[in-house]
Design brief:
The chain has 214 residues and is an alpha+beta fold. It is 45% helix and 17% strand. It has two domains: 85 residues, Phosphoribosyl-AMP cyclohydrolase (Ubiquitin-like (UB roll)), CATH 3.10.20.810; 98 residues, Orthogonal Bundle (Helix Hairpins). Helix 4 runs antiparallel to helix 5. The radius of gyration is 22 Å and the shape is globular.
Length: 214
C-alpha cells in the first residue's frame, strides 16, 4: 500500500484507469480518475470517474443502476495508470454491451476465448431461445431427469476412461463438465455460486490448519 500522493496524475490532474471484471478477467472500459474521484472510489467501493467531456465527477451506475463494485486497485510500475478490478451489476458500456471494447478490427487467430463463464452464458442463451437442432436444447426440453441421467452416464465414462488413458479421461471429464453446467443452468446455479462455495471451504481449511499449528 502506498499513499495517493505517490500516484502520477497528468497535467490535467487525471490518471487512466483500466476497468476489469474480477471474475471473468474481461476488460470492461478505460476511464479517467482525478484525486477526488479516486478518493470517492476508495470510500464507497464503487467506481467513480472524471468525465473529460462533461468536466465533472461521474459515479458509474448512478443513472443506469449498473454500478461497478470495486474489489481491488493496483497501480502500474510507473504509478501513472491504474488497474481496477470490479464486480459489475450489469453492462459496463452505455450501448448495453458487456464491455466498451466490442468493435473488432481483426479476427482472433484462435477464435473466441473460452472460459467456463462463456460456456455458461452460451448454455443460458440456449435455454432462453431453444434453437432447433441443438443438443443442449434437447436436454432442456427433456428436463431435469434426463440431465441427471446423462450426468450419471458421463460419471461412469470418466471412471472407465481413467482406467485406460489420460487422453480419454480428459475427453470424458470435458463431457461430464458440460453436462454438469447444463444442470447448473437448469437449476439457476451460477459459476459464481460454485466459486463462493469453494472459497468458503478454502477459508475453513485454512482456519483448521492454523488451529492445528497452535
Amino acid at each position: 500500500m502506498f499513499p495517493i500522493d505517490e500516484l502520477k496524475f497528468d497535467k490535467n490532474g487525471l490518471i487512466p484507469a483500466i476497468i476489469q471484471d474480477r471474475k471473468t478477467g474481461q476488460v470492461l472500459t478505460l476511464a479517467y480518475m482525478n484525486r477526488e474521484s479516486l478518493e470517492i472510489t476508495l470510500e464507497k467501493k464503487l467506481a467513480c470517474f472524471y468525465s473529460r467531456s462533461r468536466q465533472c465527477l461521474w459515479l458509474k451506475g448512478e443513472t443506469s443502476g449498473n454500478y461497478l463494485h470495486v474489489d481491488s486497485i493496483t497501480a502500474d510500475c510507473d504509478k501513472d495508470a491504474l488497474l481496477v478490478k470490479v464486480n459489475p451489476d450489469g453492462p459496463a458500456c452505455h450501448t448495453g454491451e458487456t464491455t466498451c471494447f466490442h468493435n473488432e478490427f481483426t479476427e482472433p487467430e484462435e477464435g473466441e476465448e473460452f472460459s467456463l463463464n462463456t460456456l455458461y452464458a452460451l448454455l443460458k442463451s440456449r435455454k432462453e431461445t431453444m434453437p432447433e437442432g441443438s443438443y443442449t436444447t434437447y436436454l432442456f426440453q427433456k428436463g431435469l431427469d434426463k440431465i441427471l441421467k446423462k450426468i450419471g452416464e458421463e460419471t461412469t465414462e470418466v471412471i472407465v476412461g481413467a482406467k485406460n488413458s489420460k487422453e480419454e479421461t480428459v475427453y470424458e471429464i470435458a463431457d461430464l463438465a458440460y453436462h454438469v453446467m447444463v444442470l447448473m443452468t437448469e437449476m439457476g446455479i451460477t459459476t459464481e455460486d460454485i466459486r463462493r462455495e469453494l472459497k468458503g471451504r478454502h477459508v475453513i481449511d485454512k482456519k483448521v490448519k492454523q488451529e492445528k499449528m497452535k
